[in-house]
Specification:
Blueprint (H helix, E strand, L loop, with lengths): L1 E5 L3 H10 L4 E5 L3 H10 L4 E3 L10 E4 L3 H11 L8 E4 L5 H8 L5 E6 L20 E5 L6 H13 L3 E4 L2 H22 L15 H7 L6 H10 L1 H23 L3 H18 L5
Parallel strand pairs: 1-2, 1-4, 2-3, 4-5, 5-6, 7-8
Antiparallel strand pairs: 6-7
Helix pairs in contact: 6-9
Length: 275
């Protein structure tokens, strides 16, 4: 199988590393250094900046920020043979799937639930997707063989696959990924003067703020593309925060403890902790 990966950043280069020796891999990236490194490391057989390099591909994976995926997919169409499967790795799906599939019926959206606060080619790892989950978001009209090709891609990378509609995907991701990232970013507004006490940072601070080190361009695009689902979640969070603020301000200790206990039980139930 000939697979072309457009974008050799963290996700794209990790896919290439995971597939090394399992397929004929071509890399496309406007960053010539990433192409040179990919060729030197042997994770791609050929590489260039031009989308025309994907012409003979069986599968094309677009591993770019959400804001670039649609334009790139539409630009690929002129170079591909009919029936070539295209997938992407974007963290939002509804807008991308609806736009691309209207022009290329062999497009299947996908989203690997994997990543890092680090970005770029040098952050890539062959095991990034191993034992993880990749969500596949076909439309109602997607042909079965296209879905199977994309499933096989992620299985070759070591991930399990899970099918979900693009709309459901975006609603779920707003709660379990997008809002947590947003809150971590915003918290850094309160951390700008903490350099002089960095030796006191504990696990709570480190865990909560780790994802605020993520690529701002990637997350700008995600927040804007999925604002339909993120905005209501922000409002719900603000209401909950204002409520707990009032409990503290009014010294309502018992109510505060009861609310924190509800939250504790909710967290533990998600991970099946005893008690």
């Amino acid at each position: 199988m000939k697979i072309t990966i457009v974008g050799l950043g963290l996700i794209g280069a990790s896919i290439a590393r995971a597939l090394q020796g399992k397929a004929y891999l071509t890399g496309i990236d406007t960053n010539t250094d990433s192409i040179k490194k990919g060729l030197k490391d042997g994770i791609i057989v050929e590489g260039d900046h031009s989308l025309s390099l994907a012409a003979t591909s069986d599968l094309v994976v677009i591993a770019l920020p959400v804001g670039e995926i649609v334009e790139t997919a539409l630009g690929l169409i002129d170079h591909l043979k009919r029936g070539t499967v295209i997938t992407d790795t974007g963290s939002t799906k509804s807008h991308i799937v609806s736009r691309v599939i209207a022009s290329w019926p062999w497009f299947v959206g996908s989203h690997p639930i994997a990543g890092s606060e680090f970005s770029g080619y040098d952050a890539a790892r062959a095991d990034l997707f191993r034992s993880g989950v990749s969500v596949i978001t076909p439309s109602a009209s997607t042909e079965g063989y296209c879905i199977e090709v994309v499933k096989r891609l992620w299985q070759m990378c070591g991930a399990q696959t899970f099918e979900m509609s693009p709309e459901k995907h975006d609603a779920v991701m707003a709660s379990i990924s997008h809002l947590p990232h947003l809150l971590s970013f915003v918290f850094m507004h309160l951390a700008r003067d903490l350099n002089n006490v960095s030796n006191l940072f504990g696990k709570a601070f480190t865990d909560f703020t780790r994802i605020a080190g993520s690529d701002p361009v990637i997350w700008r695009d995600i927040f804007m593309d999925n604002k339909q689902h993120i905005m209501p979640r922000i409002e719900q969070y603000l209401q909950a925060l204002k409520h707990i603020q009032s409990l503290i301000a009014d010294n309502r200790e018992q109510e505060l403890e009861e609310l924190l206990r509800v939250y504790m039980k909710t967290r533990r139930s998600l991970y099946e902790y005893p008690g």
